[in-house]
Amino acid sequence: MTGLLLKCGHYDRFECRSCAWLERPYDEQLAAKQTTTRDLVRAGLGDRPEPEWLPPVPSTPEGFRTKAKMVVGGTVDEPTLGRWDPRQGAVDLRDCALHTPGIQAALPVLAGFVTRAALAPYDVPTRSGELKHVLVTESPAGELMVRWVLRSTEAEARIRKHLPGLLEELPTLRVVTINIQPAHAALLEGERELVLTEQATLPMAVNGLTLHLGPRSFFQTNTDVAAALYRTAQRWVEEIAPATVHDLYCGVGGFALHLAAPGRTVTGIEISADAVAAAERGRDDAGLSPERLRFVAGDATSYLSEERADLVVVNPPRRGLGAELAGRLEEAGPETVLYSSCNPETLARDLATMRSYRPVRAQVLDMFPQTAHLEVLVLLTRGYRNEYVASETPT
To answer: 167 near 187, Cβ under 8 Å?
Structure first.
């Protein structure tokens, strides 16, 4: 893929410039992400040694996004699915090359459903209309989850009436919901979710395990690279062989399920009770013992203070761990921390707080081609020990 450039008419016409690195060959993108991440981590470490940097894990430059977040615009008869631009208005991006072929094929069908069910697109300037977004997720098996984000329940009856036809037209559609987001604000979704199908979660097969993705559950938008991330974490942890592991932002159980092993106790902590229930379902599907792999609904910072583990996994949002949690790890944290970060800047800030830890190994994984965004996995241990450092080839 050296030198590969992705062509996009929307970018050339200035209709969408979200892919800010589109004019950079992909190999240059990957090299720049590695360099930038190393520089930021080095700054956060101060006088501590740098980790061993493994080669970055690449992605396919297009067709990798397994989730589409589409703003609905236009009219009932001619809806657009794409984005809203203050200068241009509604921009249709149904043919966006970043989405998987399955999502690209589904979006025109969903646009037709908007017309059939008379779902008036929300108009930002006049604050009128009902339908704000359509969110589409595709599993590795090609199954779909579709969420209609509405201002109110005004259109619920029409959506239910025409849903059988949509399920017939999209035979891979497994989960359909309505999300209510009444505020005139740049919010993707609201707190209320109405599940319209018998199936409420989308099974995501990853590395032989099944993760059950609920409508409001977080999951990486690049499933192939997410699978590589979990495999890398699994290998690194196997080398250390901790007896106890805590996964502080476990979500639907991606890391926790991959790190479960004979003779090891893994606890996943997640604030969302729905995510915990989904993680428990994934555990049961894998035939794992609740005594060895358990999930707790609670606050990560509070849990860290109450129980100790040999290794802690942290996978925070873009804001990072923050001063309180990073400070608690520094004061009384475990011997080893596995930190998965989607923001090297906040990672570097947290590393500056966690002075007792030194990163022994790190790897960039390119979750988001055509942009500056990335994921980086870092293995940290207390002190300046080197026994966990070992050369290996990337996934």
So the answer is: no
| C-alpha span between 288 and 112 (Å, rounded) | 43
Active site residue 16: no
Report the relative pairing of strands 89-92 and 79-85 from DSSP bridges.
Answer: antiparallel
Token pair for residue 218? 């977080």
Q: Which parts of the chain have pLDDT scores under 50?
A: 1-2, 384-395
pLDDT per residue as tens digits for the range 294-347: 999 988 777 776 778 999 999 999 999 999 999 999 988 899 999 999 999 999
The answer to whether 159 touches 196, Cβ cutoff 8 Å, is yes
Distance CA 161, CA 116 (A): 10
**Are the CB atoms for 26 and 62 separated by under 8 Å?**
no
Q: Are the C-beta atoms of residues 251 and 217 closer than 8 Å to each other? A: yes
Calpha distance 32→95 (Å, rounded): 28
| Per-residue model confidence (pLDDT) at position 186 | 83
- Whole-angstrom Cα distance, residue 288 to residue 161? 41
Question: Could you give the CA distance from residue 357 to residue 335 in angstroms, rounded to a whole number?
Answer: 9
Distance of alpha carbon 359 from alpha carbon 241, whole angstroms:
18
The domain limits of the chain are 9-61+218-382, 67-199
Give the CATH number of domain 9-61+218-382.
Answer: 3.40.50.150
Q: What's the rounded Cα separation, in Å, for the pair 254 and 268? A: 10
Q: How far is CA 219 from the centre of its chain?
A: 4
pLDDT of residue 115: 98
| Among the four given CATH numbers 2.40.50.100, 1.10.10.10, 3.40.50.300, 2.40.50.1070, the one describing domain 67-199 | 2.40.50.1070
Q: What is the pLDDT of residues 117-161, one digit of tens each?
A: 999 999 988 999 999 999 999 999 999 999 999 999 999 999 999
**pTM for the model:** 0.92
